[in-house]
Each structure stands twice: as C-alpha cells, then as structure tokens.
Structure prediction request, 292 residues.
Amino acid sequence: MPTMTAAQKRAQAKAEYDAFLANCPSRQLLDRISDKWVALVLAALGSDCPHPDGAGEPRSMRYSELSRQLAGVSQKMLTQTLRSLERDGLLTRTVTPTVPVTVTYELTNLGLSLHGLMRGLKVWAETNMDDILTNREKYDTTGGAT
Amino acid sequence: MPTMTAAQKRAQAKAEYDAFLANCPSRQLLDRISDKWVALVLAALGSDCPHPDGAGEPRSMRYSELSRQLAGVSQKMLTQTLRSLERDGLLTRTVTPTVPVTVTYELTNLGLSLHGLMRGLKVWAETNMDDILTNREKYDTTGGAT
Prediction:
C-alpha cells in the first residue's frame, strides 16, 4: 500500500472527525478552543501583547503576569483555562522550587500552531471593530430583523 | 500630513482597540466570535460542509438547511446566532415572498474575511483531535496538575 502524502493524511483526518456532527469529539474541542480566554492566553504566551521583548516569539510567563495581561480575568477562570490547555498539551506548566515556588507557562508546538489562528481572531476583532459598530447602528435604526 | 499606508492604518486600529483590556469593545467582539456556533455557521455558509456544490465559494442557505447542517443546534441558539451575525454585518438575511416565504442567509465580504480564520479553527480541531486525545490520556494518568 503506498504511503499517504501529508495532504491525504489531513484529508483522512478531516473525514474521520467532523465538527458538524453533534457527537464528534472535534465538536467539543471546537467549543473548548472557541473561547475568548483561550484566545487571549495564547495571544499573551505567543507574545502578541504590547511588551518590549521580541514579539512573535513564544515566551514563558508567570501566573501573575498572565493575570495582569488579561485584564479582568477571574482567578478561577484563568486557572481553569490554563489547566485545560495544559491537559490538551497546548502549553506546559513548569514549577521551579524557589521560595516561594515559581510557576511558569509556555506554549508547546501544538499550542503555537493554534496560536497562529487565534491571533488572527484577536487582530480581526480589533481591526474590524469600527465597521461592526457602524453595522450595528444601522441594523438598530432600520429595525433589524423584520 | 502624509496619507497612512494600509499597514500603518492597521497598526493604528490595533493601538485604538486592544482586546487585552477588559472594557475595550473588541474584548466583547472577540467573545462574540469565539463561539462554536459562529464557527460552524460561517463554515457552512462558506461552503466547507461536505456538499456536492463548489467548496470554497460562499453560498446562500435556508434556515432549515443550516439547521440540518449544524447537527444538534437548538432553534433558539441558531436564531440568536444568525441575528447577531446579521446585526454585525457578517451575513445578510433575504426574505423572498414565496408561499410560504423563503428566508436565506449569505455571508457578506466582512463575513467572508472572518470565515477564512474560523474555517482554520474547525480544521485545526479535526486535524489535531488524535494528538489531543493522547495528551489528555497522558495528563490524566500521570496525575496532571500537581
């Protein structure tokens, strides 16, 4: 049997998992990654935040740094999000035995591959915000869904 | 004053809106678009669904077709999602006065620009599902967050 090319393998994976199907595990995964906190954690660890050090490079961040970067996130939500991303293998959690211990988070290669996509969502939201505010105003004044 | 280049305009838009900030409207927009139903509606209307007609082309779909494509979606959730996407100017809703009336949905150019990104999320979830299931198993057997 001939070896499959990368494209064929991707096509097969797509055929096996289909997020349009209610019971496909990829539907649940899509739900998990479709989350603003996931988008913001990945953006921060992928170093898209306005920070002096090299943008575009993955970087390791402490819990407290992430918490500050993601303004308004609750401790419960941030902890849950980080644990779920660690469980899925998108980031690593490293505990250094200082006093007190230092806990840092860093994207894995799998996390970096998702980061590229999620970064686009954040930039898209920021870039098209003006147009969308205009559209909403128009919709609301013309009566919208009639 | 010299005219801004497209890149400068994008940089300015990014500076004006910052989803890392709790009160920035783009944070709320990122929350709105980070949604599995949004991802699946855009994927369906962008014709990524397994359907005979030309994949990659935007297409107009009836409510009932969308409802069938997005297996398991409730009528309430689908209606809310479509209305919100229409209000944001990502899709158009066309009512044709047949008996009974025909209501169709189609992506706008703005919707198509987001479709490209969201499509990537669905494909990413389907492509990496196996790796992620393996990672979860490993995390759960080694005790995970210690």
Observations:
- Chain A has one domain: 38-141.
- Chain A is about 55% helix and 10% strand.
